[in-house]
């Protein structure tokens, strides 16, 4: 019999990892990867198909009850991820503070790989606040994008460190069920944080590339807390 494990509920969190819907730079990069260097793809928005993906996922999470269970949504502060976060989890009535939808919090640590490519550069926070009044931007320290560099691309090691930092932050939050709306490579590196505890086949399946608007659910466990409760 394969090994099975029991953990107390208080030592677990349910995390729903969601990649943004199809964005303009995704389409253009399919034909020419050099398109990712084009200034006209600055902070690339969702395509019409991307918006349709978001609408379809909204229907699914409403039907399966996820929309009511999620206590917090964390999103990358780029246009395509915030369009996805609000479209899937936001207030349908478009009236701030008049919905039972979960709060949405923008965090820099959840953004796409930084540097060189214009699609991964963000706008000023004040522009986003006008577009997304229901999103909380209080955790973003700078009005302007001080992280993106035109000549330096963030390394995968740096993305991994960011993923670990984010997961540590997330674990300290009081919410037990959280949705994270981010970018494919960032979500993969978040999962790599825990991959050492899985067998190879599980790791391959869990950490494979995310499709646009794909949602993947994991349970993370604080084994230290489990050990302390067993004593």
What secondary-structure arrangement, pairings included, does this model have?
Blueprint: E1 12-19, H1 24-31, H2 48-63, H3 66-69, E2 72-75, H4 79-89, E3 104-106, H5 125-131, E4 135-136, H6 156-172, E5 177-182, H7 184-195, H8 200-206, E6 215-221, H9 223-230
Parallel strand pairs: 1-5, 2-3, 2-5, 3-4
Antiparallel strand pairs: 1-6
Description of the structure:
With 231 residues, the protein is an alpha/beta fold. It has helices at residues 24-31, 48-63, 66-69, 79-89, 125-131, 156-172, 184-195, 200-206, 223-230, and strands spanning 12-19, 72-75, 104-106, 135-136, 177-182, 215-221. Strand 2 (72-75), helix 4 and strand 3 form a beta-alpha-beta unit. The chain has a single domain, classed as Phosphoglycerate mutase-like (Rossmann fold), CATH 3.40.50. Helix 6 crosses helix 7.
Largest sheet strand order: 4-3-2-5-1-6
What share of the residues does DSSP label as strand, in percent?
A: 5-15%
Query: Total domains, how many?
Result: 1
Counting helices, strands and paired strands, the structural category is alpha/beta
Give the low-confidence spans: 225-231
Helix percentage range: 25-40%
Indicate the overall shape.
Answer: globular
CATH class: Alpha Beta
Q: What would you report as the Rg, rounded to the nearest angstrom?
A: 18 Å
> Considering the protein shown, what is the CATH homologous superfamily?
Phosphoglycerate mutase-like
InterPro entries: His_Pase_superF_clade-1, His_PPase_superfam, PG/BPGM_mutase_AS, PGM_Phosphatase
Family: Belongs to the phosphoglycerate mutase family.
Protein name: Phosphoglycerate mutase-like protein
GO molecular function, one term: phosphatase activity
